Automatic annotation (TrEMBL):
MF-aspect GO terms: ATP binding; rhamnulokinase activity
Keyword field contains Repeat: no
Organismal lineage: Bacteria, Bacillati, Actinomycetota, Actinomycetes, Geodermatophilales
InterPro entries: ATPase_NBD, FGGY_C, FGGY_Carb_Kinase, FGGY_N, Rhamnulokinase
SUPFAM superfamilies: Actin-like ATPase domain (SSF53067)
Keywords recorded for this protein, A-Z: ATP-binding, Carbohydrate metabolism, Kinase, Nucleotide-binding, Rhamnose metabolism, Transferase, Xylose metabolism
Ranges where the Carbohydrate kinase FGGY C-terminal domain occurs: 256-446
Family statement: Belongs to the FGGY kinase family.
Name of the protein this chain belongs to: Carbohydrate kinase
Biological process per Gene Ontology, one example term: D-xylose metabolic process
Domain Carbohydrate kinase FGGY N-terminal residues, every copy: 9-245
EC identifiers of the protein: 2.7.1.-
């Protein structure tokens, strides 16, 4: 007897573009088809870099409306990048447009938090990497420099802002909450005492629910169209958590690299790892599905190349990602290296000039052409993955046996080979659509179509195309990794994250 096909809608928001995906499961295969894609970028409003919430809402609504009525859509869920949030008034209306983690105010707020409670308190209360992008620093800035929190009744992490618009729910999902820098990953609760020490009103912190929670029916106009009768199901709201769900690991303890605007590099663990060693390595603990934790590091990621492309386009030079990778492949490897997480690379701007200035300041040969700049970025990302592998192995006592790259970066053959060479590990690339597949899969588990994460990964493994790169170890990668570690130490001291 043929099994009925089940259809769900996955809204996947990246920090450069978003899309609506129709996912179908026939009992054997889980397939994802893009229905719509839209570009978006933050823009300054009232002196703060903000996301265009109205534009995102319009584009998501249009994409969901284009799903069609041929096959009933059982549910819909939204995932997005972490850390950003919206504020609701008591009546459920949104206070204003969500602010963006790239706003310079967060660097100032990080310094203020360090001066107020110190690095140890921030880390040990949450298990979260000290990083200026964290929600806690935006909220600290809100509390000290604006009146935003005065009228706020509820904070929702960004994917749950859209769940609220779809269903009226006022809860936030665990994996998204865990990126805030204000959630206790050991106690599995909001770090209320830390919030109060920083002057952030704990009253705005919402109920946290697990991935797979049914948030209610779709309401409003969408509930009368293609989504008539559909449920809103919270997937793993953080896009990396969704991607990890759909990563078909070849061995226990393998490293994941969720590669997009950011690269999130880490391993799954059964519980949070909050130790002096993890603090010294500045590793973060983020929520996973089914009670797991992702022990990882945030690496700046393909944002560097995205901003380079935009800068070159403003100069009249249009280069696709494929063309840029081809140019980079013609350049010698490891000639120039930067620390991708240096603070000067965080905000939008002339990224090629910033890469060149960093190289000049640190004594690396200054890349002059787009190909040389791109090669510098690719090699630097691969080296950052290597140092993360080493740090995770030192903290957990277990070296990862392989690397799995998912997301858009899985298409970048040069980055994959550089990662294999840098880490000395086999690198498995794919699925590219891991985030949308993971989003959809959690919905299907909630609907009773799939049993658990293990079955999800088995389905993905027989559905997705996976490409493998074998390592070509060379001594030059050892030397370059040592250079990157020294750069990172120097940059952390400049930021006040380490003693001078």
């Amino acid at each position: 007897m043929t099994r009925a096909v089940r259809t769900v809608a996955a809204v996947d928001l990246g920090a450069e573009s978003g899309r609506v995906v129709r996912a179908t499961f026939d009992g054997e295969r889980l397939d994802a088809a893009e229905v719509s894609r839209f570009a978006h970028l933050p823009r300054p409003v009232d002196g703060i870099l903000r996301w265009d919430l109205a534009g995102l809402t319009r584009d998501i609504t249009a994409g969901l409306g284009a799903l069609g009525t041929d096959a009933p859509v059982a549910s819909v869920g939204v995932d997005s990048w972490g850390v950003d949030y919206g504020l609701l008034r008591a009546d459920g209306t949104l206070l204003d447009a969500p602010t963006c983690y790239r706003d310079p105010r967060q660097l100032v707020a990080l310094d203020e938090a360090l001066a107020t409670v110190g690095r140890d308190r921030l880390y040990r209360a949450t298990g979260t990497q000290i990083n200026e992008i964290n929600t806690v620093f935006a909220l600290l800035s809100d509390a000290r420099t604006t009146r935003r929190l005065d009228d706020a009744a509820t904070l929702l992490m960004l994917p749950d802002v859209f769940h609220h618009l779809l269903s009226g729910s006022r809860v936030t999902e665990f994996t998204a909450a865990s990126t805030s820098g204000l959630y206790d990953m050991v106690g599995r609760r909001w770090a209320v005492e830390l919030a109060e020490e920083l002057g952030i009103p704990a009253r705005v912190l919402p109920e946290v629910v697990p991935a797979g929670t049914d948030l209610g029916p779709v309401v409003g106009a969408l509930g009368e169209g293609p989504l008539a009768g559909a449920r809103v199901v919270a997937p793993a709201g953080h896009d990396t958590a969704s991607a990890v769900v759909a990563t078909p690991f070849t061995a226990p303890g393998a490293l994941f690299v969720s590669s997009g605007t950011w690269s999130l590099v880490g391993v799954e663990t059964p519980h949070a790892v909050v130790t002096p060693e993890s603090e010294a390595a500045n590793l973060t603990n983020e929520g996973g599905v089914a009670g797991t934790t992702r022990l990882l590091r945030n690496v700046m990621g393909l944002w560097l190349l995205q901003e380079c492309r935009r800068a070159w386009a403003r100069q009249g030079l249009q280069l696709s990602y494929a063309e840029l990778v081809e140019l980079a492949a013609q350049e010698p490897e490891l000639r120039s290296v930067v620390n991708p997480n240096a603070p000067e690379f965080l905000a939008p701007g002339d990224m090629p000039a910033r890469v060149q200035a960093y190289c000049e300041r640190t004594g690396s040969p200054v890349p002059q052409t787009p190909g040389a700049v791109a090669r510098c970025v690719v090699d630097s990302l691969a080296l950052s993955y290597r140092t993360t592998v080493e740090d995770i192995a030192a903290v957990t006592g277990t070296p990862p046996p392989a690397v799995h790259i998912t997301g858009g970066g899985a298409r970048n053959r040069l980055l994959a080979q550089a990662t294999a060479d840098a880490t000395g590990l086999p690198v498995h690339c794919g699925p590219v659509e891991a985030t949308a597949l993971g989003n959809a899969a959690v919905q299907l588990v909630a609907l009773g179509e799939l049993a658990d994460v293990a079955e999800v990964r088995a389905v993905v493994a027989r559905t997705a195309e996976i490409r493998t790169c074998s390592p070509r170890p060379q001594a030059r990668w050892e030397e370059a990794a040592a250079r990157l570690r020294q750069m990172t130490l120097d940059d952390d001291r400049r930021r006040g994250l380490l003693p001078s």
